[in-house]
Automatic annotation (TrEMBL):
Residues 254-362 form the Competence protein CoiA C-terminal domain. Residues 23-60 form the Competence protein CoiA-like N-terminal domain. Residues 64-218 form the Competence protein CoiA nuclease-like domain. Signal peptide: none annotated. This is Competence protein CoiA. The lineage of its organism: Bacteria, Bacillati, Bacillota, Bacilli, Bacillales. It comes from Salicibibacter cibarius.
Amino acid sequence: MFTATSYSGRTVSLLNDADRAYIEANAEWYCPICKERLQLKKGRKRRAHFAHHPNTRCPSSNPESERHLEGKALLFEWLKSHGVDVRLEAFLPESNQRADLLVKNKNETLALEYQCSTVDRELIRRRTMLYQSIGVQVLWVMPFDHLRRKGNVIYLKEWQWEAAYHASGAPDFDKMPSLYYFQPPSILWAAHINAYLSSKKAHARFVAHRLPQPTLERVRTPVVVPDDGQRSALLAYKKETRYGKRPPSTPFSTFVQEELLRKKIPIQLHPAEAGWFLPWQTWVNESPVLWQSWLFLQIIPYFHHQTFIASQSLEREKQLLSIHLQLPVARVQVLIDAYLWFLARLRVLMGHMDDTFTLMQTPRLPRSVDEGFAMDQRYASRLCALGDSIAPSGSFPL
Ligand SMILES: [Zn+2]
């Protein structure tokens, strides 16, 4: 770490020029969090840093690799050069977390984490949600050698899906989940995910930002994907669900396929309204065609008895998805809201100001795979605003 407290209680940073003389003149350093004694290490090759005793029990101490220290310092200097209000190794007592960098904007507080080690999804999720619980957004930056790509396709590990940044809360389809990769000394790559391909890959737009010119805000602005490109990206996955292999066999996959078969629907003939990319898919391990088909087939029958539904009232669905998708209920609620608003964009439902929905057209199921894919194509055009007003046709009302 770069920060420490002196015997007399002054907290200093090795990256702050104004502290240099004071650091030279003092020999005793303590951790600002656990108060343990620290050692100042001045390697010839490595940046100077403070280190805990190897047997420390400090919650904030992790053996920091050289590149973690170096990347953190470079990103800090970049933000400083733009006059950003940024704190290095900021400790947040409310959530007992230490952010690599903590940025305060007019509208938000942002923790920037330079994640060099491989972690699991659960850890990323827990830390993200802890930050969000105290009103802090988090942006994960990974080292460049974590980036696996081929053209516009990015290959993702489970924890990287979770690290894809997007503001939580109200459904906002314009916010693409984004991943950031730092290539020292000065290239920050942004991968803006705009379509799901499988649990291991996604379609993304890549931008290489050469620091220090771009601002943090610029780096976080998603790129605009041309509509025709977006349409084919969305249809790549839909084509796979109709003509390709079945979704990977998981307990949830078996459960959904059994439920569908009870309604005489093989998975290839799933409703055309299901299997689309929503930004919140990054939270979910299971294929979108599975959870959306299931949810869609749960929702539509409600309209036989009532004229509108409220997403808040889908209690049974929420609980069930929470268990099957291993997702906190609050996140499932966001996911369901997002899906209902998505159906409104398809003009299947009409969404109202109070988050209730009415049915605009009675959906029909495809009778054949080809017909299903034709329906998918019409929806994709509609989503990408390529002008299409023909209602999808199919066999029987659900
Ligand atoms: Zn400590």
